[in-house]
Amino acid sequence: DAGVTQSPTHLIKTRGQQVTLRCSPKSGHDTVSWYQQALGQGPQFIFQYYEEEERQRGNFPDRFSGHQFPNYSSELNVNALLLGDSALYLCASSKPPGLYEQFFGPGTRLTVL
Amino acid sequence: AQSVTQPDIHITVSEGASLELRCNYSYGATPYLFWYVQSPGQGLQLLLKYFSGDTLVQGIKGFEAEFKRSQSSFNLRKPSVHWSDAAEYFCAVGAHGGTASKLTFGTGTRLQVTL
């Protein structure tokens, strides 16, 4: 049973560039959430997708956008990268009614130079 | 808005000793509460969760946690720590209602285990 997978594992970008991160949910899950974890901090909720729609959004600027595909996989896009966007980006999947039982992927480490 | 406080940034215990990691939450109603563990370079693994009912919950790897409404706490415990328990531990709270299930995390407690 495949768990949550994310790609790429690591990514290095420069300020002003754009990045796309990808996530495949655990088998049987249809809801995907994205979190940003800065160094030494706990994960912070970016947004959640269900039925290809953004259901809830955290306190992140519009530079952060996402998409969910019919196969439930998801992408996180960040435009106009800032140094402060350097972080571990975690994807989590879940399935109603157990939306809170979120299974996390290994994350994508983004470094912005 | 909900919030989580983990007062201890770093804790060191000897292998075989007992462990208690503190977690305090702020939420207007009965929350959903979680403990996750993160090993270096890894994602988060769910240790245990509290939704309702018995306030003492058992999790994986021999961990347990107790929900105390009067103290707004959900402390994690283990009677005997193993060297492999060294990791970062995060407490999280989930809010009821709506169509989404946002989790709010604390800043984490790093556990070091000495042999």
If you had to describe this structure to a student in words, what would you say it looks like?
The complex is a heterodimer of chains A (113) and B (115). Chain A has 113 residues and is mostly beta strands. Chain A is built from no helices and eleven strands. In chain A, strands 2, 4, 5, 6, 9, 10 and 11 form a seven-stranded mixed β-sheet that branches. In chain A, a hairpin with a 6-residue loop joins strand 4 and strand 5. Chain B is mainly β and 115 residues long. Chain B is built from no helices and twelve strands. Chain B starts with a strand and ends with a strand. The mean pLDDT of chain B is 92. Classes of the chains: A mainly beta (113), B mainly beta (115). Chains A and B meet through strand 4, strand 5, strand 9 and strand 10 of A and strand 5, strand 6, strand 10 and strand 11 of B.
List key phrases describing it.
heterodimer, A: mainly beta, B: 115 residues, mainly beta, four-stranded antiparallel sheet, 12 strands, globular
Q: Helical element count of chain A?
A: 0
Helix content, binned percent of chain B: under 10%
Tell me how many strands of chain B there are. Answer: 12
Largest sheet of chain A: 7 strands, mixed
- Uncertain regions of chain B: pLDDT < 50 for 5+ in a row? none
Radius of gyration of chain A: 13 Å
* Helix segment tally of chain B: 0
Query: Spans of chain A with pLDDT under 50 lasting ≥5 residues?
Result: none
**Main structural class of chain A:** mainly beta
What is the element string of chain B, with H for helices and E for strands?
Answer: EEEEEEEEEEEE
